[in-house]
Amino acid sequence: MENKTGTYFKYAIGEIVLVVIGILIAVQINNWNMARLDSQEEKNILLNLKQDFHFNYTFLDSLMSSQKALKPIHFSILNHTGNKPKDMPEKQFDIALNAVFRSGDFYPKTGALDDLINSGKLGILKSAKLRSNLSSWNPVLRNLKFREENLSITQKELNVLIIKKASWLNIDLVSSSTATKTNAFPISGFDIDNRNLLNELEFENIIENIVYENLAVIFEQKNTLELISEISKLIEIELNK
Fold it and tell me: How far apart are CA 227 and CA 188, in angstroms?
């Protein structure tokens, strides 16, 4: 009986060991499968992020170039205000005035990042530095949007002044976007020279504010571009691993 009991006990221990080993193997296989699926999901996320941020960089880089081109136009107006020489031709002034409103807003693609954050899967990205930079995206974007809104507000103030004391018909008549069209605006029915705005202190102050806000927009655009570039580099590093 003692021999049989000892044999049964050994068999029981052996079966327990086999069961434990089986469980450990099953857990290991499951962990390996989960890691493989996570790795594939991470790759898909990275590819989607790469596509969005490539679009964002191209869009914003072009927008910033256009924004920078407005600076000399703004100063060409300020160089003729008040008691300064009024040697700027009327047509040139109207073209410059039209260009003051030519700034654009940045509308980024954020679908991939929004989905990642809303799903709570930001942690699936292995790179802590990439996660940190992606977390900085929305605050940086808010700063840019704030500056864009300030510039828009100042442009609206200029629009109000033009409506009161100048002719939008004459401004639109000489703009490159309408002058070549068959439905181009007619000349104003009033005998008015928009250069009279140059004698208005309010006009000078509004243009100066537009210059300031435009430079602030460019500053935030530069910061945003730098972040996009850093994020894109980190995405590329992770994809190449």
Answer: 47
